[in-house]
Amino acid sequence: MASHSRRAEICATALFGLLAAAPGAWAQAQSSTTNNVPAGMVAYYTAPGNPTTLDCPADWTQYQDGQGRLILGTTVAGEVGTKSNAAQPTADGQVPTHQHPFTATWNLNKQKSVGGSGQYKPFASSGGQSGGGTSGWGDSGYGFIQFLVCSSTTSTGDEVPVNTIGYFTTQTCPANWSPQTTLNGYFPLPVAPNGPVSSTYNAPGWHVGSFPTHTHPNAAVASFAVQKLGVQYSGIASGAKASTDSVPVSAQLQANTTDVLPAVALLVCQKTQGSGTGSGVPSGISLFYSQANSCPVSTWGPAVGAPGYLILGISGSTSTGAGSFSQGLPIGSPLTPGGTNPGHTHPISITADLGENTTGGTSGTVYYGMGGNYTATGTTSSATIAVPYVALLLCQAG
């Protein structure tokens, strides 16, 4: 009995000496146990928040490269952390937009006009003409939802549930995680429980730096309302004109010169083994899960308002220069996995100077088009962008 008491005394003395020698290490160990999510993992904070106080949980920091961008999974060496396009939105409730350069053509129809009395006026020559410009802004047609995007910075454990799909800023997956190559080049799309989880759509996947372009065929624009001749010559019937009142204008859009979606590529991994109780996952952090029936922890639930919306990362109130963004704001219409891809259009406006032609004469037949500036506006034909996405359950830790 005396021997047992002596051993306990020695152990207690040794433990006291260790703590006294390294108080900093003890304090760090205590703090790090609050976050059992691997460092380098990027996830969304989906709990409701006031834009003036919105911030990531302890041991997490706002992931700046994800602000105004979507996450695109990759397992390609060298792609992790690469970005496409400028960050959008820059203001609350905006969706990513893009433009197209275009060329337009029109034809001024000729009509006979008889000169007389040596008079002439400045008119444009009739016939085919062309011009160009840049279309108005248009979005992709997909629906989006705004969530704060955070990165795990300090962790000493991993209690993330098995079958979680995670996105990482690291070049390799953590222990007990494996690269999810089937999701390479796909955006995560949250779905409701019992949905088509882990199904991919619109293959092949995209890669940052080489997103496909698109165009809009048969992009018709409205007509110029060309005025009548406006000059009364001798022998000309009242109302004579050098062009029809309506001059059709057709426009052809070229391929977009910027990516249609702002994105950052992150390593996509799946947890395949190890413990996974969910303890130490901060409340409000949401993780993608590859199983269909329900969230893996009884106190967790699907992220509110997320199913069918691609997620745009936003900045919180503590970010430098951050705007005031509405957490969980849905924009547009949600997508039904496997359903019809949405289409989109662009407004077009072109102002043409029809030029001047001072040719006139005292006799003979002359053909004129009316000079001056005219504007045609209209809307392009619709185009569909087959955005690659994977359906995943997004579960919020309780």
Describe the structure.
- The protein is mostly beta strands.
- The protein has 2 domains: 37-96 and 140-211 and 259-335 and 386-396, no CATH class; 99-139 and 214-258 and 343-384, no CATH class.
- The chain has helices at 2-21, 23-32, and strands at 41-45, 60-62, 70-74, 83-84, 97-98, 101-108, 112-114, 127-134, 138-139, 144-152, 164-168, 177-179, 187-191, 200-201, 220-225, 246-253, 263-271, 285-289, 301-302, 310-314, 330-331, 343-344, 347-353, 365-367, 373-379, 383-384, 389-396.
- The strands form 6 sheets. It has a 15-stranded mixed β-sheet that branches. Strands 8-6-16-15 form a 4-stranded antiparallel β-sheet, with no helix packed on it. A two-stranded antiparallel sheet has the order 5-9.
- The longest helix is centred in the N-terminal third of the chain and has 20 residues, at 2-21.
- It starts with a helix and ends with a strand.
- Residues 1-27 form the signal peptide.
- This is Phage tail collar domain-containing protein.
- Keywords: Signal.
